[in-house]
Amino acid sequence: MDHLAEYFKVFSEPNRLAVLEALKGGPLNVTAVVEQTSLSQALVSKHLKLLTTAGIVHRRPEGSLVYYEVIDKTVFKLIGQAEKLLLTARRQQ
Asked: How buried is residue 50: exposed, middle or buried, by Cβ count under 10 Å (0-12/13-18/19+)?
């Protein structure tokens, strides 16, 4: 259970979710993620490193650039399901 709790912590930060949303369309470099999220380069780099360490994002050097890509796209289904559960819970309150 501890490992599962740690995994879910990765999704508990709004800016990290924004970075993942930017990567939904496919591999991007840091500059492209910055442009799509309006977050600072330092913040995007920090979140990409954490997502890479967590095994959610893969880092692929290509020439002088590094591209980041979500390893398993079903992570977007997980996030979508969590959004549905949240909406349902809010409606029931």
From this structure: middle
